[in-house]
Every structure is written in structure tokens, then in C-alpha cells.
Amino acid sequence: MKRVFSGVQPTGNLHLGNYLGAIKNFVSLQNDHECIYCVVDMHAITVRQDPKILKNNILEVAAAFVASGINPEKSIIFVQSQVSAHAELAWIFNCVARLGWLNRMTQFKEKAGKNRENASAGLYTYPVLMAADILAYHASHVPVGDDQRQHLELARDIAQKFNNDFKVDFFPITEPVIMGNATRVMSLRDGKNKMSKSDISDYSRLNLTDSADEISKKIRKAKTDPLPLPDLSCLDDEEKFKDDIIANRPEAVNLLNIYAALANENIKKVVSIFAEKQFSFFKNELNDISVEVLSPITAEMRKLIDDKAYLEDILNKGRENAHGMASPILKRTKEIVGFY
Ligand code: AQP
Predict the structure, then answer these.
(1) Ligand 1 centroid, distance to 22 Cα (angstroms)
(2) CB-based burial of residue 69 (10 Å sphere; 0-12 exposed, 13-18 middle, 19+ buried)?
């Protein structure tokens, strides 16, 4: 059975992009894969976190995993900092990765912004830790949103260079799994920016903790354009949105993609249902499907967060299982490197 690894940062404001781009796919993979899902708190502290809030956010991600349908009896759910193999392997990989590779990472450039000199060294080496997360388990498949594509390429480069340098065939060359209609959910306020936890406007995203009223308000206020929704001529032969429509009507494209992902429909069907309709009509339908899909998850998350002992039990078992899987891989890595 193929082994899958992925993670979500406990940085608050879990949103529809995290759900459609990642967590929903985590759920669908668990029936025919061996799955390991991680709350990546060590990644979270690459930017400053309030310790008390971080602790709550860790439980919130674990609750979101379970509430979305990840079954802790089938999949491993655990917290990254509780399995030391991640940090140990990351150090070894820091000595394999090249500065030139890290200098090309666009997410570091975006997150560090103009104040690059003041960014943490951890933010810079973030993708090396991500490679360690995956390769500590010899995971072959990693479900992520489109924004993580470049980091996964780096994980492949690290595995390849390690194998070449030490003349072994030890680390697998990991495949990204970027699936569904919502691999890159965009902001509700600006269809050219990614929906993100750190956007200062709460109206830019649907949070997994939003009430039905909040969802409705945000969808009502979501940015659109003055035209009716596009017809099928907006799709190319591969049934993907054409470049000109993505460039000129990014909000329409984003909302249609969101609808298709929530409804589990292909985009051609969704475009044909709403072709030439007004946004006011479409927004009502989008609101209904958003509430229908997200409200049960939100309700279950609330219940789970109130049952801290249950969540901690899942995380403790997950830690033991994850540790058991990573330990022999780390031990062998150390032997290959020549540690005594
Ligand atoms: N907008 C998105 N559309 C599709 N997938 C997304 N993901 C994140 N945003 C979108 C995917 O969610 C998983 C977990 O992400 P993360 O916790 O590592 O955070 P991130 O990628 O840095 O993105 P966020 O949530 O928007 O946080 P900030 O504001 O800090 O950048 C990943 O698989 C990611 O691809």
C-alpha cells in the first residue's frame, strides 16, 4: 500500500482553501493508502506565535481533521514536535540542501516580504523541514494545495542528492498529489490572491469555524464583476478555464471552482448550470452548498474541541505510531551519514 504524508500548520483561521485543497483529499485517500497526517507546529513557529494560542490551535487542527472525516483508527494523526525524528532529519537535510535551491523558494520571498533580513532562519529552511516530515516516513505521496508544489520539488531534489551523495537508494522520490477542482482557492475579496489564514480581512475567507450567518454574510459580500456568469465558451478543450477568463474574471472563476469542489461536480457541468445567470442567483446557491458542507464540520469541530481528553488520546496514540515508523528510518539515515 502506498504511504501518504501531509500536514497543516496550527496558525489559526483554518479556511475553505485548507479544506478543499488539502483536508478533503486527506479523507478520500485513507481508504486505499496508509496515511499519516500531522499538525505541523514546528512549521508554525517559523513566524511568531503566541504560546497559549498555538496550543489551542494545535487541538483545533486535530479537531478539524477528525471532524472532516479522517478516521483515527485508519490514519495516524499526531503533532510534529512530539516526534523528534523530524528535527533530527531536518538537520541532516540542511546539510544536503543547497543555498541556491532555497533562494529560489517563492513562498519565503512572499512571507518574508520586504523585511527579509528580519525573517527567521526557520522560515528560510521551512521546505527542508517539510522534506524531513515526508521522508522520515518514506512517504511516496503527498496531498497538498497547488501552493506547495515548489516545496515538494525541493523534497525530491533533497532525496535525490542524498541518494547520489551516499550512493544509496534509500529515500523515495515523492509524488505530489494535487487533486480536485480547488487546488488553489482564491480570496473572496480579490480573485488574484490566494485565500489565506494570514489575510487581515476575515471577509477574504470562509473559516471552518464560521457560523451559517457568517458564511452567508461573506458570500453576499464576495467580490464579483458586473457581467452575468460565463457560458461554456470560457472552457478550453480540456474543460479548464481559458487563460483570458482567469486573467479578466478571476472572481467568477474562483467562485465557480469553489461551487464545483463543494458539490463534487465537474466544472463543465457547473458552468453550464449557471451560464448567463446573475451573480445574485448564483451566490444564493453557493451559500446553500457552503452551509450544507461546512456546517456539520463546524458543529463536529466544536464538539471535539470540548472533548480535549478524546483529542489528546488520538494524538498520543498517533505520536507512538509515528515514532515507531520514523525511528528505524532515522537510525538507518544516521548510519548512512556515518554517525557513530
Ligand atoms: N488557498 C488555498 N487553496 C488550496 N489549498 C490551500 N492550502 C492552503 N491555502 C490554500 C493548502 O492547505 C494545506 C495546509 O496549509 P498550511 O497550514 O501549511 O498553510 P499555508 O499553505 O501556508 O497556507 P495558508 O493556510 O493560507 O496560511 P498562510 O496565510 O500562513 O499562508 C497545504 O496543503 C496547502 O497547500
Answers:
(1) 8
(2) middle
